[in-house]
Amino acid sequence: MAALRGVSRPIINVNSPIDRTAAQRAGVRIGIYIGTDDFAAGRLAGARMASLLQGAGDIALVGGRVGSILAPLRLGGFERGIRGTRLRVVERVNADYERTKAQIAAEQILEDHPRLDGFFAANDLMALGVADAVRAAGKVDDVAIIGLDGIPEALDAVRAGSMSATVSQYPYVMGQMAVEACGAVTRGARLPARVDAPIALVTKSNVADAIATFPKPFRPYSDPLRRLLRGRR
Exposed site from 32, 46, 64, 206, fewest CB < 10 Å? Predict the structure, then answer.
């Protein structure tokens, strides 16, 4: 933030949000935030888990690092997505967004809760670690696993059946939108305070499409910045 102090041009903030109050104190003007709505992404994962488990069962949540901004949003969204069901969160751990740490944590959870029905991990690397533990325990057909990010290895895992689903986000689109925002500013356009990049639930039924179009979305999405760049409102 100190390096940006005194910058008069608007900052295009991508993916990791800068605290606007802190920015104002530092004299920095955030023109727009472009990124994933992490709460909505988690909620989508929760709704999918509820569907997979028919609204009942025991689940575990795997978060990232202590103090992380994004993981609590994703986990909070997931809990919103299962609200009103009989799904019960029986364990919460942090695995620092790392595959090996998630695998070790999941092994212990499976030992402590042998009847566990599902895991939600706040990113795909941790979901893959969970999948490693579930496979080693011989429970691939018994435990649902949902991740978030849509990285290629997770897409392959969904296709192979070792992960139940992932919620894809699209850094490619975030970068594209950032360039469009820069172009719109140079033309005098007024930027919206926030633009949410697309997300998509990827399951066995559509994973082939997600892989075929990666890193781009496999479904149409709204892009208000493109309209601004073209001089449309």
Answer: 206
Residue labelled with tokens 């100190």: 2
Closest of 150, 113, 221, 53 to residue 105, by C-alpha: 113
Distances, alpha carbon 97 to alpha carbons 2, 65, 79, 153, 172, in Å: 28, 7, 19, 15, 21
- Measure the N-to-C terminal CA separation of the chain; round to a whole number of Å: 32
What global pTM score does this model have?
Answer: 0.91
In single-letter form, the type of residue at position 165 comes to A
Helix (H, G, I), strand (E, B) or coil at 119: strand
Report CA-CA distances (Å) from 62 to 10, 65, 132, 160: 36, 10, 14, 22
Q: What distance in Å separates the CA atoms of residue 79 and residue 42, rounded to the nearest whole number?
A: 8
For domain 38-169, give its CATH number from 3.10.20.340, 1.25.10.10, 3.40.718.10, 3.40.50.2300: 3.40.50.2300
Spatial distance between the Cα atoms of 135 and 141, rounded to a whole number of angstroms = 9
Give residue limits of the domains in the chain. Answer: 2-35+170-229, 38-169
Neighbouring residues of 166: CB distance < 8 A, sequence distance ≥ 6: 124, 127, 146, 147, 148, 149, 150, 154, 155, 158, 202
CA distances from 130 to 25, 45, 89 (A): 42, 16, 16
pLDDT tens digits along 49-97? 999 999 999 999 999 998 888 899 999 999 999 999 999 999 999 999 9
